[in-house]
Specification:
Elements (H helix, E strand, L loop, with lengths): L5 E4 L5 H12 L6 H10 L4 E5 L5 E10 L4 E9 L8 H15 L4 E6 L4 H9 L3 E6 L9 E7 L2
Parallel strand pairs: 4-5
Antiparallel strand pairs: 1-2, 2-3, 3-4, 5-7, 6-7
Bound molecules: coenzyme A.
The site of coenzyme A has 19 residues, from β4, α3 and α4.
């Protein structure tokens, strides 16, 4: 475990750094900064970062809740390349899962690309199972798998 990395809730001032990591990890399919701001505004309790001792952001993850169905969604998880494989992704994810649990949300979903082995392995380690595949999930003809965790 990387003990100099702390997992904490995101604050507004982290958002520009988060956006830079978001671009590094997902461009051209990254969330724009204004969307990150709005996710943060509607669900700050579900928005986490991994920060080093200099408060540099090394990873982040955030989610949202479908209140009608009582389902939590993990929207994004990313760790900077040099810090990957040091359990940071796992630690931030666990923080988000525990935030869902504290809100009595026991069913959690997410999507990822079928070739994203690192992410799929991590999610499976956390108990997620693949439940379906959608060949055109984002209407751009790129496939996504949907994974679900039922922690009831
Ligand atoms: C996916 C990602 C967040 C994983 O973060 P991480 O901090 O490197 O992962 P961890 O060190 O916490 O790894 C936990 C588990 O995930 C799996 N895993 C992580 N990286 C892996 C890799 N390169 N290959 C295979 N499995 C991997 C393993 O099961 C690992 O457990 P282990 O170390 O006991 O084998 C990171 O690779 C990343 O940011 N990728 C780019 C962005 C992305 O694709 N995000 C997911 C979008 S859905």
């Amino acid at each position: 475990m990387n003990s100099n990395i702390k997992i904490r809730k995101a604050i507004k001032e982290d958002l520009v750094s988060i956006f830079q990591l978001e671009e590094e990890a997902f461009k051209p399919m990254n969330y724009p900064l204004f969307v990150l701001r709005q996710f943060y505004d509607i669900a700050p309790d579900l928005f986490f970062v991994a920060a080093d001792e200099l408060n540099q952001i090394k990873g982040y993850c955030f989610g949202g809740i479908d209140m009608d169905k009582n389902i939590g969604w993990v929207f994004v998880l990313a760790v900077t390349k040099p810090e990957q494989k040091r359990k940071i992704g796992q630690r931030i994810s666990l923080e988000l899962l525990s935030a869902f649990k504290s809100k009595n949300i026991n069913e959690i979903q997410l999507t990822t690309t079928p070739d994203n082995t690192s992410a799929i392995n991590l999610y499976e380690k956390l108990g997620f199972k693949k439940v379906s595949e959608d060949l055109n999930y984002y209407f751009d003809n790129s496939p996504r798998i949907i994974m679900k965790l039922d922690s009831k």
